[in-house]
Amino acid sequence: MAEHEIHEEDHGHSIAAWTAVIIILVGSALASLAVVLTSTPLFVIGLVICALGAVAGKVLSMAGYGAVTVNGPDAPETGRPEVGVN
Hints:
Layout: H1 15-37, H2 40-65
């Protein structure tokens, strides 16, 4: 591996990904607390929050806050030559 290797993957470093992760973490924490407290309604609310987190991430991604692909069909037109190893 080169010392200054160019990475073309984004690994989800975007507003959409982080928003989805944070919402899903809150929902899973709430559902976990519900298991300890044996509360079925609280558990269901936690699962609904997890589902809303996934939907929020997808909506934000579709709104343009998601990761940008480098060589995909939705890659931005930069007019610059490609850099890196394909």
